[in-house]
Amino acid sequence: MRIRKIEAIPVRYDMDYEIWDSLSCFSARQAILVKITTDEGVTGYGESAYFGGPLDICKTIIDKELAPFFIGKDPFMNEGIWHAAYTSCVKNGRRGAVVAALSGLDIAVWDIKGKACGQPVYKLLGGQRSRVEAYASAGFYAEGKDEAALADEMCKHRDAGFASMKMKVAYYGRETDLRRVLAVREALGSAVPLAIDANNNWNLCTAKWFVDHLCDANIAFVEEPLGIENIADSAELCRYSTIPIAGYEQETTKYGFAALIQNRAIHIVQPDVIWVGGFTEAKKVAAMAEAACMPCYPHSFSTGLCLAANLQLMATLPTGLLEMDRNPNPLRDDLIRGEIAIDKHSMVTMPDKPGLGVEVDEQVIARFRIDR
User: Fold this and answer.
1) Using CA atoms, how far apart are residues 231 and 243, in angstroms rounded to an integer?
2) pLDDT tens, position by position, 10-49
3) pTM recorded for the entire structure
4) Is 202 part of a structural domain of the chain?
């Protein structure tokens, strides 16, 4: 079997309203999907994180820089393909867009491997679980969403079956954001684990202030409190905080996560398969986390392919929660025909289809594709 064709497909869903976190405001959900076809007719899908730049950048890197390393290659030699692509691009792509682009290609290759073997990816990687607990990722800022509206939103996710959830912080000042968190905590009740996500927008003093004020509020974890490069302060915060510190979704490759893990700059390791380097690299990051006795909770906030890929990784880990974005997005739900959903106990049962475990709806791709 040989890789014959690679397509990088830009898609966009325009939302009816804007939402924002501490740093980014958006009214559309965009993505770069990757489709790889082999000479035996087996097709694999992946997704490359484009976050932080135009879609064209990621697409161009795939089309012009990375595709030649994959065309004509045996997909079962994925370690060699990944290494050749990464080392050849290291001068311009040790981090950022090149690794993100490489992630989508690698995911699609693993999808092909699973389909060729008739097995889901998590079993090829060495599965540990057939069911994974999920949490609701929500609570974004939006026009007119006051504390009462925010609390009502989070309660709806609880009532839909989620046993735990996460909300955004760090856009307003300390006191306002603290009131928002406490309003949600009161509405949910003290028994429901609640995580908060600062999206890198606090300094060390502010982060310490928040963990002090929330130490008795059953906060499951604080996600990305500081800037991604600020490893020294992150390590100090981890030593100081009684609330687990999670991060950093923006980090890529085993080399990047090694610095966070070795310096104890996080308590919970959060790679994203579509960002970190694909399955080939994510499984190594997860192994480093396990060796350091740290839980691994992959980040997942994009299309259904992103969700499916990170779910497959989760099933190879002994513990951890799956992030499930709850903002309306047909590129997440309709793209994979709603095949990933929680039961009444907040659990996702692993799909039994081969590869990523989901069937991609080509009509949804055609509907939201923006390069034609």
Assistant:
1) 18
2) 999 999 999 999 999 989 999 999 999 999 999 999 999 9
3) 0.96
4) yes
